[in-house]
Design goal:
Length: 247
Amino acid sequence: MIEALIHLAQASVFDLLALSPPGWGGNLLRGLTNSVLIAVGAYGIGIAIGIGGAFGKLYGGPVLRDLLELYTTIVRAVPELVLILLLYFAGTDLINRLLEALGYQRIDINGLVAGICVLGIVQGAYSTEVIRGAILSIPQGQIEAARAFGMSPALMLRRITLPAMLPFAIPGMANLWLIATKDTALLAIVGFNELTQETRTAASTTKAYFTFFLAAGALYLLITLFSNVIIARIEKWARRGMPAGAH
């Protein structure tokens, strides 16, 4: 079913790009590439923050737990568009002010890098809670058995905690990946040339709003359908050996 939808979305995208005014199809594909790069980078940063944040909230000291709680609460409470504007503009300005205070020259921060970092910070807060919940879902008997065998914390993390939490974390992390692909559109507000910004530029120039935004929607749908196929395979691999219907 999903494979059929992917083929249908692909055909729709090619048809719409063929109907668009000449010279703009490449712009949309360039914007799509930028969107995917931002989503992959932000998702990777979010996972790294999430793993560290989850273990910090579960096993860290009181100060670390309070700081992480403050981080996850603020990021999840403030609208993402506001966070992007705040981190993108205020964050880059703060970095340059610090450089000037240390005697260095101001730098121009690459828009792609800035976009990845901004969305990565947002993703990290949600990943922290997803991974924390997945760790808490691990049967405690497995952890106690690993400790009884004298496993070090690092070895227990690699052999027990991460593999055991993976089936519980995948559904939430899959949703975060799909959110990351859509959140890249918010970077259009700061003028970064991802898919939405390229679409808006093409549509406003040619006045073919319906064609271009429909094509952009089809491209986002194509990313989602393809991602669902990959996620389903990863989930099947992670749940190998588990009883059918186990959650």
